[in-house]
Amino acid sequence: MNEEMRNTATDVHLPSMRYVRVPRPMGEQARRELASKGAVIKEARILEEGEDVLIPVTDEVDDALASRLDGNLVEGAAVPRPTYRPPYKQVQELWGGRPGSEHLPRKWELLGNVLVVRIPAELQAHKSLLGSIYAQALGARTVCQELGPIAGAYRTPQVQVIFGSGTETMHKENGIIYKLDVARVMFSSGNMAEKKRMSELDCAGETVVDMFAGIGYFTLPLAVHAKAAKVIACEINPIAHSYLVQNIALNHVEEVVRPVLGNNRDLPGEGIADRVLMGYVGDVARFLPKAFALVRPGGVVHYHETGPIDEFPERPMARIEQASDGRKVEFLRKAEVKSYAPAISHYVIDFRAY
Q1: pLDDT band at residue 6 under the 50/70/90 scheme
Q2: Same domain for 40 and 70
């Protein structure tokens, strides 16, 4: 946890206030979700008590929200906190007067208690020190530097541990627990809005096929929040599949999700799905014929693609129509998920296939 999560028994107490009590490993994710709703009282400190973290919250937080965060509401004495210092400000202070401060990374990805950061060439000689500094500023157990992009059909990260040890972690997002090893499987926080959108769909009674399930990025929001009746989650990477199986159990959706290890082209049946997820970035277009085979007439496909900004949405739309084999296609939604590279973005197109 970050520096404000500390024992505060010697501080002057304010009147009683409400806290959400959550287990320490889930504290940072709970804080982020509550903060996104404007529900954290910034003038009070986040406290530690035994193995739990207590987050001061507004009156709008109810028992249902606290429960969804794997916590509960409690009453306690409020403790004022000092002026908040953003993590990057703390990094600058810990770096001190050393040369190269203009190159300190301003962006990172904190997954549970494992931090992934890209260290520029100018600071490579100091990567161990930087690992220690970023761990202290962001409350991370382990810090990894990103060496390159996600690689290969198995979507394998390229990272190196520069502080701490152990790259397996528990990451909570939108009320869903993801267990993963950041050195062995991919996880992108940049897809958070799209995962949240999937969780807000009404999939009651639907059979969904997730063709590129990974560790459950979209499978779990559909099963936990969107209330899909059945999700067939296909993943070709054995390591990612093993975490998918664990995450299905951690989120108590064993009766909904059927994990399948293998190539999605080998999935049996035609017209079996009310909805098909194609949440992969790469040469996704070659899998469109299989998606059309799986989706029933009137069903919806969520097609992801990376491509040049100036070719969206014409290029992916043309690829979809080319793969349709004469089936009528109705385009429902076209949107950018996130920036992927200079002049390249990750897009999603929702379409209905008749």
Answers
A1: very low
A2: yes
Within a domain: 4: no
Mean pLDDT of the chain: 91
Count Cβ atoms within 10 A of the Cβ of residue 102 and give its class: 0-12 exposed, 13-18 middle, 19 or more buried: exposed
Residue 129 sits in the same domain as residue 27 = no
Counting Cα atoms < 13 Å in the Cβ hemisphere of 331 gives 14
Q: Indicate whether 74 and 94 sit together in one domain.
A: no
Dihedral over Cα of 232, 236, 238, 239: its sign? negative
Quickly count: other Cβ atoms within 10 Å of residue 328's Cβ: 10
Residues 6+ apart with CB under 8 A from 89: none
The number of distinct structural domains making up the chain is 3
Q: Is 286 helix (H, G, I), strand (E, B) or coil?
A: helix
pLDDT at 15: 62
Query: Which residues constitute the domain of residue 250?
Result: 188-353
pTM: 0.77
Which of these, 178, 163, 230, 224, lies nearest to 198 by C-alpha position?
Answer: 224
Cα(39)–Cα(68) distance, rounded to whole angstroms?
15
Q: Could you tell me if 152 and 211 lie in one domain?
A: no
- In terms of domains, do 193 and 322 share one? yes
